[in-house]
Here is the input.
Amino acid sequence: MTSIDFHFNTPDRLQYACRLARKITQSGSVSPQTPLVVYCSNQNRLKQFDELLWAFSEKDFIAHAPFAEPAARKSPVVLVNQDERLENHHLLLNLDDRTPAFFSRFSRLFEVVSADEEDRAMARLRFSYYRDRGYPLTRHDLAQNAQ
Here is the structure.
């Protein structure tokens, strides 16, 4: 069963997602064979995330590529905007407003939620969906961690 981590109350959803992607890649838990899959059906948001990854850190480049590009086969981070035919379903980072229909194929799902009220409202729906179906949930309140 997929375990789900909610990281919420971040001031900037995409910046925090970059930090989370860096942490995951540096942990050694992803590789080109078992990549971190970053999903968002909103192509503009996914493109913005892609651009942020390129400029995120001068010291820590996060290798990544959109699924459609040949470089994705050699990348530990793969960007998708729809359900793709992936060989491995290890880690999924959801940047979409809705629950990915295919999330249960993954071992672990990361949700990142900003302090924006609209984002929080959509995240509550996703949280309820997972909770009501019995998925194990872990909450990471970033506002508490900042104190």
Summary: Strands lie at 3-10, 36-39, 65-66, 77-80, 91-94, 108-114, 137-141. The mean pLDDT is 93. The chain has one domain: 3-146.
